[in-house]
Amino acid sequence: MKPLILVRGGGDIASGAIYRLRRAGYPVVVNEIAIPTMIRREVSYGNAVHCGEMILERLVARHVCIGEIQDTLSQGVIPVVTSSYEELLDQLHPDVVVDAILAKKNVGTTRLDAPFVIGVGPGFSAGRDVNVVIETMRGHNLGRCIYDGEAQPNTGIPGNVGGYTHERVIHSPKAGVFTAKRHIGDEVQANEVIGYVDEEPVRAKITGILRGILKSGLIVSDHFKLADVDARCEESHCYSISDKSLAVGGGVLEAVTAWDYERNQDGNDL
Question: 56: which strand partners?
């Protein structure tokens, strides 16, 4: 029987790992927060919290309560649960934990949480608080499994997409309630208003397609990430898992598969 995997986070990078693991036959449970704030909602299994059910790359994710997890798994559906992480650990006893929150720091995952624990991105140290770290920085090491040490530190500079870094990411000008006026997949012009925080307009900085935008009605803090404009204007990119997410997901799958193989080999040697 395949080991049960609990993934912390259901955003776009986490969804690359969720997808790879499920396609390889692993049962996966996703732990999300009660009000997710991902902007790339169309490529995030965690968006099931907002819409009840999310279909991405032919896989279905469903927002369920903790008591419905086993039935949901038996249907071939990915359960997305907003119960506390501690409660899920206590109820599920997962074989593997993957922290893919992408908080740029460890928000409470430890090596004692499961027999095998993976940290995705910076904020984790392999051999100390997790068993393995997966590199998330674009470049030569993207998706690499790190068994000793840490991922590259967060630079604070968004990755280069279509020739733009800071310009493609839009942040809140103030604290308040965000209202979106444009939708994922819409083409926008530089300086066009794409939404408001209270009454203050939020404008695109470049011309391109809205690859992601925060759900309307959410309360945001000053400089909160609100949207992502892709200058390449490929509509399909808005609705399919990205190359980066798949690379990171491949690293997670490699780590889990290697651990599963090695523990089975050790058991056969006994």
Answer: 59
Tokens of residue 158, six digits: 């968004």
Does the reported pTM lie above 0.85? Answer: yes
The Cα 118–Cα 154 span in angstroms is 18
Tell me 188's DSSP state. Answer: E
Identify the helix (H) or strand (E) that includes residue 140. none
Half-sphere exposure of 184 (CA within 13 A, CB side): 21
pLDDT digits (tens, 9 = 90+) for 58-68: 999 999 999 99
**pLDDT score for 135:** 97
- Which residue in this structure is represented by tokens 């500079």? 157
Which of 142, 89, 146, 139 has its CA nearest to residue 119? 146
Q: Do the Cβ atoms of 213 and 194 come closer than 8 Å?
A: yes
> Using CA atoms, how far apart are residues 93 and 96, in angstroms rounded to an integer?
9
Residues 109 and 126 sit within 8 Å (Cβ to Cβ) = no
Handedness of CA 83, 88, 92, 97 (dihedral sign): positive
In angstroms, what CA-CA distances link 198 with 47, 141, 189, 220, 222?
24, 41, 22, 10, 12
